[in-house]
Amino acid sequence: MLFSSCFVAASALVGSAFGAPAQHSERAAAVVYDSETGFTFAEHKVAYTLSASIAVRVAVPSSAQAGQPYDAVFQIIVPNQVGWAGIAMGGSMVYNPLLVGWANGQQTQASTRWATAHAQPQIYNNAQLQKLTAGNRANGTHWQFTVKCTGCTSYQGRTGSTTTLNPKGGNRMALVISNGKPQQPSNANSNLVMHEGPIYWTQSFPEGANANFGELVRRNGGTTTSDGEVPTNGSVKA
Ligand code: HEM
Ligand SMILES: *[C@@H]1O[C@H](CO)[C@@H](O)[C@H](O)[C@H]1NC(C)=O
Ligand SMILES: *[C@@H]1O[C@H](CO)[C@@H](O)[C@H](O)[C@H]1NC(C)=O
């Protein structure tokens, strides 16, 4: 392969690496403190070529319990040659929340989708995103988004039964990327173009437990009922 252009070389590798889906064994996440937002994240670097990876980070309230819905903050850091990236919360294209994002100039877009077939997913209104005031940017090498999601960690799957991601364990996810931008990058609801992938891994959540989750969400311009702080009365719900 001729490495006359970094971009061409990287694009070629994206195609070949996705020919045989990489399997990442179950393992602990790295603990990453993000001084920009104040969150402590559980980070997995998900390799999509031999030399390039996407950092997938999740922060959850320390108070989140298995089997109960809770808000989570997702941050992904993506090399610029990736046109859009998506995370499937249940490791499948269909019947689970899909979190997608891309760069729009020096800003980013993020949105939740839902698919029942291997075709253009629908906008998914059962999960709501708040783009935090920090941690969203695009520059000469990378783009990254930081969003609080209400509704990403609990959903009704194909059979109608509820699946909840385990805040105290590992959750199997899938990542897809596209070399092409969405059709209208300035529109968070834009149609997407076909992707490469998937790559599967098990995202460990406990390393991203935040005792002051609610306070951190509010400090970054968001709202949450998954406070993490010790409730002063019995009405605080996940
Ligand atoms: C234009 C939008 C999309 C189209 C046309 C599309 C189409 C497809 C097709 C045709 C496959 C099967 C590929 C194969 O069997 O080789 C597939 C698989 C897959 N797609 Fe998509 N897709 C779209 C968006 C998305 C999004 C937004 C996500 C996740 C964030 C996603 C995640 C996956 C995953 C995880 C698979 C692996 C198989 C599975 O779990 O069903 N796709 N997609
Ligand atoms: C570009 O953004 C990435 C991801 O946020 C960051 O790691 C990197 O330091 C930034 N580069 C510059 C020159 O600011
Ligand atoms: C209980 O706590 C919640 C959340 O902080 C608050 O909205 C609510 O007003 C409180 N209720 C009482 C009776 O103090």
From TrEMBL:
Signal peptide: 1-19
Gene3D superfamilies: Cellobiose dehydrogenase, cytochrome domain
Domain of life: Eukaryota
Domain Cellobiose dehydrogenase-like cytochrome: 33-213
Segments of this protein annotated with the region Disordered: 217-238
Biased amino acid composition, Polar residues: 221-238
UniProt KW keywords: Signal
Xref: PANTHER family: CELLOBIOSE DEHYDROGENASE CYTOCHROME DOMAIN-CONTAINING PROTEIN, DEHYDROGENASE, PUTATIVE (AFU_ORTHOLOGUE AFUA_8G05805)-RELATED
Protein name: Iron reductase domain protein
